[in-house]
Amino acid sequence: MAKYKLEYLWLDGYQPVRNIRGKTQIKEFASFPKLEELPDWGFDGSSTRQAPGGSSDCVLKPVAVYPDSTRKNGALVMCEVYNADGTPHDSNDRATILDDSDTWFGFEQEYFLYQDGRPLGFPEHGYPSPQGPYYTGVGYNNVGDIARQIVEEHLDICLDAGINHEGINAEVAKGQWEFQIFGKGSKKAADEIWVARYILERLCEKYCVQVEYHCKPLGPTDWNGSGMHCNFSTKYMREVGGEPYFLALMAQFEKNCAEHIAVYGPDNHMRLTGLHETQSIDQFSWGIADRGASIRVPHSFKKNGWKGYLEDRRPNSQGNPYQIASRVLKTISEVPKP
Ligand code: ADP
Ligand code: MN
Ligand code: MN
Ligand code: MN
Ligand code: MN
């Protein structure tokens, strides 16, 4: 038997941006605990905007468990929040995802690393040389010193945890980075985005670096904002597809444009301006290989008979992947299959 440090993680009641919270409990297991072996737990919801002070107990139900290679006998336990009566808590966006079997989701999380109130590599006053060399760049002038160290360490901790990273890259703005996570099942992909966000923030503590997830931290300048493109496919899109179904799907996305934008992250009007590889926030468009469209259709999608996956480019870096996936799946469910 060994004593395991179980870090129970959950999303709080803050809006429009939920924070990930965590606390540790120690339990003995013969080997690394399986999900079924992990007990429900509770927390004080009055401190997280999830309950009034008089009746403050909220329930944590484990939904996924990951090894934590940074901690001896450590585990990260992603949880959903429930009320004492067994119903999902209002803040539990994961519970709004209905049927996600046979859907595949890939999220591209962009973010900035900040120190002393500015992106890593920015001078104390003014700006570094304009965008151009930073995207996928190399060299001290382009990526600075500790950024790559953080990004590489983050990748290793995530891979040790079994998180399904598909890649990482330096992004267009200085101090801006991206990781991509793919999952069969939207809940799996979204859980892993939240746990990867948590790991990144915790790792950055020791570097005195803050992760800036805001979608346009440098305001209305020529510096790129941060997105969280949502790549998605259902079994039907991958295996049957066809142009009529695709067009019906796009018509439904257009009809629900405002409903999608409502859950695609705060301050998105600052980012979706029609510039910097975005479509305007109030317009919907799709286009083949078009990075200025709301939805980019990969070349392969058309070539394969309108089959495969699509990229919704509108969700931003502070978006909640549970809400995003939930909305995408709802819109898909509204389209009849021919
Ligand atoms: P880009 O930066 O050109 O938009 P990335 O390589 O960063 O492309 O991201 C593409 C994403 O698409 C990856 O996260 C990948 O997991 C996802 N993806 C690939 N195939 C599928 C699929 N069939 N269904 C859902 N997502 C997919
Ligand atoms: Mn206490
Ligand atoms: Mn990408
Ligand atoms: Mn990107
Ligand atoms: Mn993309």
TrEMBL record:
It comes from the Bacteria. The keyword Nucleotide-binding applies. SMART domains: Gln-synt_C. Residues 88-338 form the GS catalytic domain. Signal peptide: none annotated. Pfam families: Gln-synt_C (PF00120), Gln-synt_N (PF03951). Keywords: ATP-binding, Ligase, Nucleotide-binding. Residues 4-86 form the GS beta-grasp domain. It catalyses: L-glutamate + NH4(+) + ATP = L-glutamine + ADP + phosphate + H(+). The keyword ATP-binding applies. Its EC number is 6.3.1.2. InterPro entries: Gln_synt_N, Gln_synt_N_sf, Gln_synth/guanido_kin_cat_dom, Gln_synth_cat_dom, Gln_synth_gly_rich_site, Gln_synth_N_conserv_site, Glutamine_Synthetase. It is an enzyme of class 6 (ligase). Catalyzes the ATP-dependent biosynthesis of glutamine from glutamate and ammonia. Belongs to the glutamine synthetase family. Homooctamer and homotetramer. PANTHER family: GLUTAMINE SYNTHETASE, GLUTAMINE SYNTHETASE 2 CYTOPLASMIC. This is Glutamine synthetase.
